[in-house]
Specification:
With 796 residues, the chain is of the alpha/beta class. A seven-stranded mixed β-sheet has the order 9-8-10-11-12-14-15. Strand 5, helix 5 and strand 6 form a beta-alpha-beta unit. Helix 3 crosses helix 4 and helix 24 packs antiparallel against helix 25. It is elongated. The relative contact order is 0.07. About 3% of the residues have low confidence.
Length: 796
């Protein structure tokens, strides 16, 4: 017992230093309290301050105990005196180790100070050139001061707006405090647009939409909207609606959030705010590690992305050029009221109902039905009506003794019924088989239309995906241009890099335009198959390997494609199923049966006559002249009738019967040979298409791995390019590699789905039309086939 207590005591002694060390290590992290200044309360924009805090905490967690005391976050009152008081309060507060200003006015104020006793990060700089902020090389050059300055061409938003809408009278809507902060805003705007005869009017926008709308000059044809921080959501929407109702194009200096609310366009990217938060966190970390804030780079790549609200564009009568559209993110691209929505299943079913090529086959089948009825008519009773008028000479009339008057009108009815005619029966039976053949030909055309429609739909999805990838690549190229400009601004690179990226952008725009044309082309092709106006727009539903309408979504199918042996057995199974279901073979079977009946008829023609029954009734309707019938003398009345049975046999046709028999026999042999050849072609098509599908199925995962690796490589190379450790050629190569890999990854899925459609066409049955019971029966046959081949059912 004592030994046990001693061991426990020793164990506690051993573990105690570890626990104490861990606690001490945590307690030894330097405590840093960060103060934050906001210009005033904001009710319309989301508060991104929490994102900034989380980024800082994540980056500094293992080295510093960073805190954000509630009383050290000061929200000013949207007045210059109030903002100055808030900034000074934190600058003299001994408990605050670092100050961050997240308002544009507070940021401008701290940048005007030349002596700062503690580090300050001005996070909301609008335009360093317009604000005339201190700059020395790539940094501020002022001890303890750094700021984040969006790196872009001066007036890039204005030029982007001008490219969308060539305006001549620009109204700039800005908060009153913003106008006071930048009194030269109108002069700067005019200087940026000095090549254009544009009039600029600054309109103060405080809280009232109506006041702003009333203050707009009458000639206004373009409105630039700076962040209106004091507008409520309702008032801002009134402003947006008012601008739209007046058909005034608008441009948001804030970002795509306001474009979604109804402004026409913006050039800022949605990634701007999270990227700015990460940049603030990186600056905080570097300052806490001992770097002077005044030496930190201030340039911040803007990562521009043009966003256009096409619903607003249509409402105000703006039609952007192709040059603008190809690199823009388009919201509400389809006009309102476009309710037509297509999925793979609905597109195929619509094609079956409306495709004109299939309609032609329907007409052929309908016409063939009448051919059968026409052949049947030869076996049914036939009635002929006949009317005759005769005039003969009088002496001959007298000689007939009343049989044929000089002038007479008669009417007759003749009925004929085939008792047995080998030709008629053979023709009728053969036509019924030919009709079955025509129906199977229609089924063959139906399968072809289904395949064409499914492939066309998948090509639309592919074209849309490639268009999106190319647009993403264009945006990435645009971002790399901004990175290059940042490198040029700090002397890390020459302007040759900037020109090279501009060249890449021009090339990327051409590729995007081509992708757009291909997408429209694929949509037109699908519309033609659906017998729709070819320019009619529609929305689509994505189809992938998990689509429940496809057999591949069932585990019992795709596990049969994961190794060569299973795939080989699957090919044998599908060949068996395909040959049993092929309408091409059923068409030939029907044609063979028809030809066999024709051959039998030619053989019987050598000895079998045609038997028929015929009856006739003739009525004398009128008579005149010599030789009239005299009932009293001749005993003849006006009605004559006759009936008889006939047997007809052509005794000699110059060898025609033998030739007909030999011809029918050769045609039968030809059809049987054609069926054998067709069966071989079907089997070859099934096996070949499944080989291709198996290869494209494996390629999906491989191409995804390649795309993921290329994306990671691009991320690393981009980071190295920003730091100046790799060249522009390395980044272009990495970007091109990632582009090719992304396209390959997306193409792999569509290639497999198209190959799968070809497999189903070859087997004569598509997933879309298999009810649940039939699908289960199909899988049961599959499992039995695999068991018979020596491979038990398997599950993943």
């Amino acid at each position: 017992m004592k030994i046990r207590h001693i061991l426990i005591f020793l164990l506690i002694l051993l573990l105690a230093p570890i626990s104490v060390s861990t606690a001490q290590e945590k307690a030894e992290h330097p405590v840093v309290r960060i103060g934050i200044v906001k210009d005033g309360p904001v009710i319309r924009f989301p508060d991104h301050l929490e994102t900034v805090k989380q980024e800082i905490l994540a980056l500094t967690a293992n080295q510093f105990d960073v805190r954000f005391p509630a009383d050290k976050t000061i929200v000013a009152d949207w007045t210059m005196p109030g903002i100055i008081v808030a900034v000074n309060q934190l600058l003299i507060d001994p408990d605050v180790g670092l100050v961050i200003t997240v308002g544009f006015r507070a940021s401008d104020h701290v940048c005007s100070l030349r002596e700062l006793k503690k580090p300050v990060i001005a996070a909301s700089v609008v335009n360093a050139e317009m604000q005339q902020l201190p700059r020395k090389g790539s940094a501020s050059g002022v001890r303890n001061l750094t700021y984040i300055s969006p790196q872009r061409k001066p007036g890039s938003s204005l030029w982007a707006f001008q490219e969308i809408v060539p305006f001549n009278h620009l109204a700039v809507l800005a908060d009153g405090l913003f106008v006071e902060t930048f009194p030269k805003l109108d002069r700067f705007t005019r200087r940026v647009l000095d090549d254009l005869p544009v009039e600029v009017k600054i309109v103060r926008a405080e809280r009232s939409a109506q006041a702003v709308l009333e203050a707009l000059p009458p000639k206004t044809d373009g409105v630039m909207v700076f962040p209106l921080m004091r507008f409520s959501p309702g008032e801002f929407q009134k402003l947006v609606d008012g601008l739209t109702s007046r058909k005034l194009p608008s441009f948001s200096a804030y970002g795509p959030t306001e474009v979604k609310q109804g402004l026409l366009a913006s050039i800022n990217s949605e990634s701007l705010i999270p990227r700015r938060a990460r940049r603030i966190a990186m600056n905080v970390h570097r300052i806490l590690l001992g770097e002077d804030a005044g030496t930190l780079p201030v340039a911040f790549p803007s990562d521009e992305q043009l966003t256009i609200n096409m619903a607003t564009a249509r409402a105000v009568g703006v039609y952007p050029t192709w040059r603008v559209l190809i690199e823009a993110e388009l919201l509400h691209e389809q006009p309102g009221g476009v309710e037509r929505h297509l999925s793979l299943n609905s597109a195929v079913r619509e094609a079956i109902a409306a495709n004109l090529d299939l309609a032609v086959q329907d007409r052929n089948v309908a016409a063939g039905k009448q051919v059968v009825n026409q052949a049947r008519s030869a076996l049914l009773p036939r009635m002929d009506l006949d009317a005759k008028g005769f005039v003969i000479d009088d002496d001959r009339a007298m000689a007939t003794g009343g049989v044929q008057p000089e002038r007479s009108v008669t009417g007759s009815a003749t009925g004929t019924q085939i008792i047995y005619s080998e030709d008629a029966w053979s023709n009728f039976t053969a036509e019924k088989h030919f009709q079955a053949s025509r129906e199977e030909e229609r089924e063959t055309a139906k399968l072809d239309i289904i395949l064409d429609t499914a492939v066309a739909y998948l090509e639309v999805l592919r074209a849309k995906t490639i268009e999106r990838i190319q647009k993403d690549n264009l945006r990435l190229t645009r971002a790399n241009l901004e990175r290059a400009r940042a490198r040029v601004s700090i002397g890390m690179a020459s302007r040759a890099e900037e020109f090279r990226w501009e060249s890449e952008i021009a090339t990327s725009k051409q590729v995007v335009l081509d992708a757009l044309a291909r997408r429209r082309e694929s949509e037109n092709a699908l519309n033609r198959l659906l017998n729709r106006p070819q320019e009619e727009r529609f929305t689509t539903e994505e189809t992938d390997l998990k689509d429940p309408l496809l057999l591949i979504s069932d585990e019992r199918f795709h596990v049969r494609m994961d190794n060569p042996k299973s795939l080989s057995i699957l090919r044998d199974f599908l060949v068996e199923q395909g040959l049993a279901a092929a309408p091409e073979l059923r068409r030939l079977d029907a044609a063979i049966e028809a030809q066999k009946r024709i051959l039998l008829a030619t053989k019987r023609a050598h000895w079998l006559p045609t038997f028929s029954l015929q009856g006739n009734v003739t009525e004398l309707l009128a008579e005149d002249g010599e030789g009239q019938r005299d009932d009293g003398l001749t005993g003849q009345n006006d009605t004559d009738w006759s009936a008889g049975v006939f047997a007809t046999f052509p005794l000699f046709e110059g060898g025609g019967k033998q030739a007909a028999t030999k011809r029918a026999l050769e045609e039968l042999f030809g059809l049987r040979t054609e069926r054998q050849a067709t069966a071989e072609k079907i089997e070859e098509k099934i096996r070949s298409s499944l080989h291709q599908a198996g290869a494209s199925y494996v390629s999906i995962e491989l191409s995804r791995d390649a795309a993921e690796a290329s994306a990671k490589n691009l991320e690393l190379v981009t980071d190295s390019y920003v730091r100046g450790t790799v060249s522009i050629i390395d980044l272009i190569d990495a970007q091109n590699s990632a582009l090719v890999a992304d396209q390959a990854a997306e193409n792999a899925v569509y290639d497999f789905l198209i190959d799968l459609m070809k497999v189903q066409r070859a087997t004569g049955q598509f997933d879309f039309f298999m009810p649940r019971e039939e699908r289960e029966a199909w899988f049961q046959r599959l499992e039995i086939f695999f068991e018979q081949a020596g491979m038990a059912p398997k599950r993943r």
